[in-house]
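ok so i was messing around last nite and threw this chain in just to see what happens. nothing serious, just curious
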Amino acid sequence: MPSLVDVIDDGGANAVLAWGVVGLIAFAAVESLLDGRLLWSCFAVVAAAVALLVPLGARDPSVIAAWEVLALLALPLVSRSLGVGTQAATYLAVATLALLIAVEIDSFSSAAMPPRFAVGFVVVTTMAVASLWTIAQFAADSLLGTAWLPGQTRLMWDLIVATVVGIGAGLLFEAYFRRSGETVDHETTDVNPDDRSRH
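result:
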């Protein structure tokens, strides 16, 4: 049965790759700060902190989120820090961060969050962040005289892109949960006959 816990791995190879990805997120935070992109630097710091909550909560550096999930989070941040990011990649980072938060709530609290609920949480969170970002842009333009809002048509397309990316990320994560669950079930099936033969 697929579970959010499948996103957390304690394998040695995964730990090495995952810590390398966390290092890339830290690089993106510093690079964005040096380039004056404070918002992106803060986002990268939050992403790194959320990724580090797993090993801190487990008190074991080898227990960390799967490197593939962390890579989905790091890719948009690193590309943005290098000036080649896109709006769709930004929303993918938001969706992946929402997934990691859901995994940690499920793993380190008494709250139970089935994978399907987590997928819905990812979609809704991505759409909500896009909407809140739009409100923040409008408030800044109205109160501070900035010109962040790109126009009504572009704004609507941004919200559509956020929705599509959120749904796509949700479907991708659900497929990941199914694959992880099947792998765990297969390994369990392989182990059990040996265990029975020993007794």
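not much to say yet. Residues 4-193 form one domain.
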